[in-house]
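Quick bug: ImmA/IrrE family metallo-endopeptidase output formatted oddly.
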Amino acid sequence: MLIPNRAGVVSLINDSHSIQRQRATFCHEIAHFVLEHPFEISFSADRSCGLGGEYEEEAV
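Here's what came back:
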């Protein structure tokens, strides 16, 4: 998850995940930033979150 702040953005990564998953998550979140996706948070019933659809596909 990326959270905007005055200096730019902060990335939150789950440290209980494997180092490989943490790295993949970080790269995915940075892709959202580089692609200038909007800072929006949406949660679904299955507790997943993300921008959904087109933005998520583009950030992969």
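Actually, after a second look the formatting is fine. The two ends are 14 Å apart (CA to CA). Closing.
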